[in-house]
Amino acid sequence: xxxxxxxxxxxxxxxxxxxxxxxxxxxxxxxxxxxxxxxxxxxxxxxxxxxxxxxxxxxxxxxxxxxxxxxxxxxxxxxxx
Amino acid sequence: xxxxxxxxxxxxxxxxxxxxxxxxxxxxxxxxxxxxxxxxxxxxxxxxxxxxxxxxxxxxxxxxxxxxxxxxxxxxxxxxxxxxxxxxxxxxxxxxxxxxxxxxxxxxxxxxxxxxxxxxxxxxxxxxxxxxxxxxxxxxxxxxxxxxxxxxxxxxxxxxxxxxxxxxxxxxxxxxxxxxxxxxxxxxxxxxxxxxxxxxxxxxxxxxxxxxxxxxxxxxxxxxxxxxxxxxxxxxxxxxxxxxxxxxxxxxxxxxxxxxxxxx
Lengths: 81, 264
Hints:
- The structure holds two protein chains of two kinds.
- Chain A has helices at 3-22, 26-47, 50-74.
- By secondary structure, chain A is mostly helical.
- Chain A has a domain at 24-76.
- The longest helix of chain A is centred in the C-terminal third of the chain and has 25 residues, at 50-74.
- Chain A starts with a helix and ends in a 7-residue tail after the last helix.
- Chain B has a domain at 73-96 and 120-264.
- In chain B, helix 3 (46-58) crosses helix 4 and helix 5 runs parallel beside helix 12.
- The longest helix of chain B is centred in the last third of the chain and has 32 residues, at 224-255.
- Chain B is globular, with a radius of gyration of 24 Å.
């Protein structure tokens, strides 16, 4: 566990979370949510939980981003609030 | 605007309460915390037990797999059932079984992917190279989950992702011609039945549900430990079948609005 590396990942994590919630374009929001999943995966791999990191890389950063994008394409692109 | 302010106040209060609770936690990797060292004067803690005894019990070097597929077999089985139920819920909500307008297609894009199209040649060639590698790696992850990170869930998601990549690169029809709808539903059911079947087989042989040690005479292994190790592999294969097919089913239904005609 490297402290400075941790801090960098956590800062990017908070930035990605805030952007993906605040951006109006839902396609970019789901892309940034994929980035958020990948950052969490990095954090877990760095803490030594390799199995969880692997699952997060496959599910969170890979498949769920694709599923969100497929949903955005079939509904509407702009957030209403 | 008012709802946003109220939501922000609620989130701030919850967040500060959570942070207040986290402050009492033992620090990360502390060997003297109760979870790692056990209670003073009591039995050894559960993590100590797993670290020292799980290899003797199961002959599986990867501790996470042995805990996930053996000690907490019920948990993993019902996680798989949750994935299956999620896929079936999406199927029940989205799938359009009898669509009225079925546009006749003289030439689907499925053939142009195979025979070469200038717009798709880079994407198509890359996917032709990458998809077999993804699937081989997924099989390695499933089969080698005892010794290295991985297992049924991760390998299953990788296989599902390879089919989704095929559907994205070529066409949903191309992917569905490899794995059509009756087959993926059948495979998803078979995956859960494999997992539950191991449990029922243990009961038939006189043990508890998912108590793999009693499977030794059926699996012809050296001892109950190796029987547990091999049964874990069988269970992981069941998980991988369900997860991979359900991932592809969710994508196919979401991307085509339930018609399974044309994807993204």
